[in-house]
Write a structure and sequence with these properties.
120 residues, alpha+beta, Translation Initiation Factor Eif1, two-stranded antiparallel ribbon, 2 helices, 21% helix, 24% strand
Amino acid sequence: MSPHRKNLSLVYSSEKGRICPKCGWPVANCACSKQATLPHGDGVVRVGRETKGRKGKGVTIITGVPLAAAELTALGKELKKRCGAGGTVRDGVIEVQGDHRDTLVAELEKRGYRVKRVGG
């Protein structure tokens, strides 16, 4: 038995930080959280433009990509490089700075996703 699993009711350790209640490992090294869970959706990737909360600056929003967090981050990095723009991946949504809807729709279709352009 692992030394981390001695006391499964342990929630926090000053040495290791937060402890996973399922496996007993520190949350940073937890095997439970690394299991790939895909987001639920209808299988359509939506590409739109949004300016809300960005002082009028537009970003291209990509939602509904059926990938786990690590793969979504890698895809976001590749799409940002393709557009030559910055951006982020936040809460399962890829944001690319600027209006790159046409480029991203073509790139995602080339990668085999069903893509729908949403918004104006």
